[in-house]
Amino acid sequence: MSRSTGLQAVRENERFTVTLIAAAVQAVATLMRITGLSKTDVINRSVQVYGFLAEQMEDGKEVLLRDEQGNLERVHIV
User: Fold this and answer.
1) DSSP string for residues in the chain
2) pLDDT, tens digit, for every residue of 46-58?
3) Is 70 exceeded by the pLDDT of residue 5?
4) Rounded to an integer, what distance in angstroms lies between the CA atom of residue 31 and that of residue 39?
5) Distance CA 64, CA 72 (A)
6) How far apart are CA 38 and CA 34, in angstroms?
7) How crowded is residue 10: how many other Cβ atoms within 10 Å of its Cβ?
8) End-to-end Cα, the chain, rounded Å
C-alpha cells in the first residue's frame, strides 16, 4: 500500500490488544481453518486486505465478485 497513512513514523512491529466481536472471532477461526495460518497471521493479513480495499474504494473503485457463470455482484463494505 503506497498511500501515506499520515503517521510520522511507523514502527516495524507493534503490539495491539483488541476485543473482537463474536462475528470477528468466528471469521478468524474460519480463516485459520481454511488457510492453516496462525491467529496473528490471519489478523495481520485481514487488516492489510481491508486497508487495500479501503484505499481502492476511496479512489472510486468498486469491489466485485464473479461467480462460475460470470455473474457479477457488488460487495458493500460498511
Assistant:
1) --S--S-S---S---------HHHHHHHHHHHHHH---HHHHHHHHHHHHHHHHHHHHTT--EEEE-TT--EEEEP--
2) 999 999 999 999 9
3) no
4) 9
5) 6
6) 11
7) 7
8) 20
Cell matching residue 60: 472510486
Q: How far is CA 44 from CA 21, 64, 70, 73, in A?
A: 17, 23, 31, 26
Question: Over the stretch 27-38, which tens digit does the pLDDT of each residue have?
Answer: 999 999 999 999
Q: Which three cell numbers stand for residue 42?
A: 490471519
The torsion region of residue 73 among left (phi > 0), alpha (psi -120 to 50) and beta comes to beta
Contacts of 50 (CB under 8 A, 6+ apart): 77
Q: What is the pLDDT of residue 8?
A: 60
